[in-house]
Structures are given as structure tokens and as C-alpha cells.
Amino acid sequence: MITRDVRDYEPMSVKLLNPWSSAQRFVFLHSAVYNTFNLQCHLISRPTLCTFRARAMTEWKAAIMAA
Questions:
Q1: What are the mean pLDDT values of the chain's consecutive 10-residue runs (67 residues total)?
Q2: Residue 12: which H helix or E strand, with range?
Q3: Fewest Cβ atoms closer than 10 Å to its Cβ: which of 17, 24, 38, 67?
Q4: pTM
Q5: How far is it, in rounded angstroms, from Cα 27 to Cα 4?
Q6: Is 39 exposed, middle or buried (0-12, 13-18, 19+ CB in 10 A)?
Q7: Structural domain boundaries enclosing 38
């Protein structure tokens, strides 16, 4: 009679969860970038929107240079 310990199955379940964690990480980063650059245009004036976008772009370029 062959019996397997529960711990033998544990690495399999961990491998199955890894794609979900990477997907969650992608969604988190994507939403942060999306929300930075896509403001609700109908709530603010056009000059203010242009100012916000220019400021966001300079911060984004600074962050990329720092990384």
C-alpha cells in the first residue's frame, strides 16, 4: 500500500497559485499607471488637465531614470 504525505502535494498547490499572484501584481501596477495618466477629464478644466498630465509625465520620467 502506497500512501503519500500531505506535504508531497503542497508544492503543487503553491505552483498553481503563482500565476495568480503575478496577475494580481500586474493589475495593481497597471491600475496605478492608468490612474496617473487618465484623469476624469469632464471633472476638470482643459488647462488644469494639461498641467496635471505634464506633471505626471515628468514624475514618470524621473521614476524611470531612478530605477
A1: 56 57 82 77 82 90 88
A2: helix 6-37
A3: 67
A4: 0.42
A5: 37
A6: middle
A7: 9-66
